[in-house]
């Protein structure tokens, strides 16, 4: 029995995923609490849960708070030692909790962790959102063991070792509950996308380890809420990346790296124009103006986070540019980066 473990699924109009995956979560979660936090869905999600899964706890939120604030509001109401933030479009495997929880029980330095994340529709390949653990390059671009930009590797067991990572995926995030609240949880202002990287950066700055434990694995559908073709996703990714960098970078690097990112974002916008995706170019422009509007708030957040900082996690980022390796040198596999 692990009643101190709460598996928390945030749902918004996702009854089709609850129908497909919730039974497996309940079956394989080894007596952990299973909670569905509903972001004011307008479909039949809540009525379906009450009828088909009376054993599942339901938290009904008053509005759609998005991913970040939705989890923050829900987790305020859940007492546990460990939270497992699980996307509704994830298929779990037998005994998926034990390898990670046992490791976190033994090593109090581990603040958060993730399983190996494989693609639901292509189960021999890693999935975009997390793969075998996340990293960050010196310019703030995220990538994973098993996934660099849009290239996802086939899983041949090449990343089956437990590894320290820079960030763990929000699709299936194991985290100590006390640390989650102590460090402020996910940033409400992010709404969705990159909020877990921002939170993991705070964890690392506070001196904690983050791990990928591939002895546990799950299968993720991905893109269930916002597809990558949606300009809204482009907006959130570009805006949130700038906000994350501003919050967490060492003081002497903020303006240098933000300036470089503005130039590179401009090139990304030109690429969208050339390919005829004008709405995505406009999304980048809007993302930049939105970031400028958040600057006073970001300054306040930096000041607050400084009190919790014990180390400078930026030193753990990849010492070169993932853009250079991928687009210039043609290195698309994580193992190629080690050469």
Question: Any descriptors?
Answer:
2 domains; 12 helices; alpha/beta; two-stranded antiparallel ribbon; 339 residues
What is the mean pLDDT? 95
Which fold name fills CATH's third level, the topology of the largest domain? Spore Coat Polysaccharide Biosynthesis Protein SpsA, Chain A
Count of discrete alpha- or pi-helical segments spanning 4 or more residues: 12
Radius of gyration: 19 Å
> What's the CATH superfamily of the largest domain, by name?
Spore Coat Polysaccharide Biosynthesis Protein SpsA, Chain A
Helix content: 40-55%
Distance between the termini: 45 Å
**CATH class category of the largest domain:** Alpha Beta
Sheet having the most strands: 10 strands, mixed
Sequence of secondary-structure elements: EHEHEHEEHEEEEEEEEHHEHHHHHH
Low-confidence regions: none
Q: Helices, strands, pairings?
A:
Blueprint: E1 5-11, H1 15-28, E2 33-38, H2 45-52, E3 57-60, H3 66-75, E4 82-87, E5 90-92, H4 98-106, E6 110-119, E7 122-126, E8 134-136, E9 142-144, E10 147-148, E11 151-152, E12 163-164, E13 172-176, H5 177-182, H6 195-205, E14 209-220, H7 231-248, H8 254-274, H9 278-293, H10 295-306, H11 322-328, H12 334-337
Parallel strand pairs: 1-2, 1-4, 2-3, 6-14
Antiparallel strand pairs: 4-13, 5-14, 6-7, 6-13, 8-9, 10-11, 12-14
Helix pairs in contact: 6-7, 7-8, 7-9, 7-10, 8-9
Structure, described:
With 339 residues, this protein is α/β, with parallel strands linked by helices. It folds into two domains: 5-220, Spore Coat Polysaccharide Biosynthesis Protein SpsA, Chain A (Alpha-Beta Complex); 231-313. The chain contains twelve helices and 14 strands. The chain has helices spanning 15-28, 45-52, 66-75, 98-106, 177-182, 195-205, 231-248, 254-274, 278-293, 295-306, 322-328, 334-337; strands at 5-11, 33-38, 57-60, 82-87, 90-92, 110-119, 122-126, 134-136, 142-144, 147-148, 151-152, 163-164, 172-176, 209-220. Strands 1, 2, 3, 4, 5, 6, 7, 12, 13 and 14 form a ten-stranded mixed sheet that branches. It has a two-stranded antiparallel sheet with strand order 8-9. A two-stranded antiparallel ribbon has the order 10-11. Helix 7 packs antiparallel against helix 8 (254-274). It is globular. The termini are far apart. The model has no long low-confidence stretch (mean pLDDT 95).
């Amino acid at each position: 029995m692990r009643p101190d473990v709460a598996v928390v699924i945030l749902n918004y109009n996702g009854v089709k995923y609850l129908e497909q995956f919730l039974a497996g979560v309940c079956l394989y979660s080894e007596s952990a609490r299973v909670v569905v936090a509903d972001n004011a869905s307008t479909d039949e999600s809540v009525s379906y849960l009450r009828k088909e899964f009376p054993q599942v706890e339901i938290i009904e939120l008053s509005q759609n708070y998005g991913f970040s604030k939705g989890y923050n509001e829900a987790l305020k109401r859940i007492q546990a030692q460990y939270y497992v933030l699980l996307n509704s479009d994830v298929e779990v495997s037998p005994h998926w909790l034990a390898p990670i929880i046992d490791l976190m029980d033994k090593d109090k330095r581990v603040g958060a962790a993730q399983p190996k994340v494989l693609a639901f529709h292509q189960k021999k390949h890693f999935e975009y959102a997390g793969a075998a653990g996340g990293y960050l390059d010196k310019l703030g671009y995220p990538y994973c063991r098993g996934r660099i930009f849009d290239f996802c590797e086939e899983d041949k067991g090449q990343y089956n070792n437990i590894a320290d990572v820079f960030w763990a995926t929000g699709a299936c995030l194991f985290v100590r509950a006390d640390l989650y609240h102590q460090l402020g949880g996910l940033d409400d202002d992010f709404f969705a996308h990159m909020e877990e990287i921002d939170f993991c950066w705070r964890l690392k700055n506070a001196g904690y380890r983050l791990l990928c434990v591939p002895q546990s694995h799950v299968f993720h559908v991905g893109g269930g809420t916002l597809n990558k073709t949606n300009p809204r996703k482009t907006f959130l990714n570009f805006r949130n990346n700038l906000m994350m960098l501003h919050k967490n970078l060492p003081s002497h690097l903020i303006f240098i790296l933000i300036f470089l990112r503005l130039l590179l974002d401009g090139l990304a916008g030109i690429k969208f124009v050339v390919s005829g995706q004008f709405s995505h170019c406009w999304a980048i422009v809007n993302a930049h103006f939105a970031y400028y509007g958040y600057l006073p708030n970001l300054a306040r957040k930096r000041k607050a986070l400084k009190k919790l900082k014990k180390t400078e996690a930026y030193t753990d980022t990849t010492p070169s540019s993932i853009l250079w390796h991928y687009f210039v040198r043609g290195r698309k596999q994580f193992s190629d980066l080690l050469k």
